[in-house]
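Milestone M4 deliverable, item 7.
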Amino acid sequence: MQTALRELEEEVGIKHVEIVPHAKFTDHYSIRTSHGMAKKTVTLFLGKLKSSTIRLKRDELLDVHWFDYHTASLILGKLSTGQSLRGANTYLQQHKWT
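Output delivered:
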């Protein structure tokens, strides 16, 4: 989780976030590289931001967008991270975390 928090700060300038305890979602997928196939693992954490202000680090990311669940599910639904998005949504529906 410390790596995720560091990446948030380094890549988009988000310093103050409260991570939802026990809400961690992991996806596995493969990508094609010049050396063949490589297995990847992505772990997503739910967090509550103290501020939605971001400072995009252009050498790390091209752009950042905020989406509601419905829009995000349309974008990510068929990708491997769509499974984590659905899991996060289910978690939030089952737990009253404010």
